[in-house]
Amino acid sequence: MDDLQFRRSILADPKNRDDDTNASIKNDPAKQKFVQEIDSLDNKIAQAMNIPVPDDLANKLILRQTLASHQQQKRKTRVRLAMAASVAFVMGLTVNFYMFSSTYKNLGDYAIAHVNHEAKHFSNTAEPTVTLASLNEKMAVFKGSFDSTFGTLIFADYCRFDGSKSLHLVFQGQSSPVNIFILPEDEDIKFIANFANDKLQGKSLNFNHSNIIVVGDKQEPMQQWQERVNKSITWSI
């Protein structure tokens, strides 16, 4: 057996040796050394592959898979929550846009929509909580002040009216609250002096670059409310 054939035979299967191979090993020290090296390498490979399996390996693998699945589910949940929040935010903006935007034709349309939207927050039997001093502090923004509240004032605070900062006043009326809005002039929305729908009526006044809108139900004397506003407000130059 020549040297090349011998090496191929040993490399192919170190443990399988025929008579010719054994005879070649016996008579050649170089081949004996080669066989020893191959046997040593073969034993090292066998030892490296003979790794003991821990008793709890199966439980560890199941736990790892469970944790990975839990983390993946948490990521999916966060994504869903983020998407839901985004949708809710967009829907809120859309509702506000359509409810309080310059798509209304005039001040009257917008005022009626505003009153209807916030009607559930006010009761005609609510106790007055607004002082004249706090009212005039807010009125200073519009360069005006009230000499008196000329009625039972149950609410006074800023709000958004067609995108503009306005002062929203709510008074006790004969049967339901009367709403008064004080806001800057706005060329983007048409001024209208008188307006109404099937339940509400209103009047608009213009003073010192400000619009004052009074809205009440059909039983309210709008002319009297308008006169009270006119007599009670003092405007600064």
UniProtKB/TrEMBL annotation:
Transmembrane segments: 81-100
Keywords assigned: Membrane, Transmembrane, Transmembrane helix
InterPro entries the record matches: DUF3379
One Pfam family linked to the record: DUF3379
Keyword Membrane applies: yes
Name recorded for this polypeptide: DUF3379 domain-containing protein
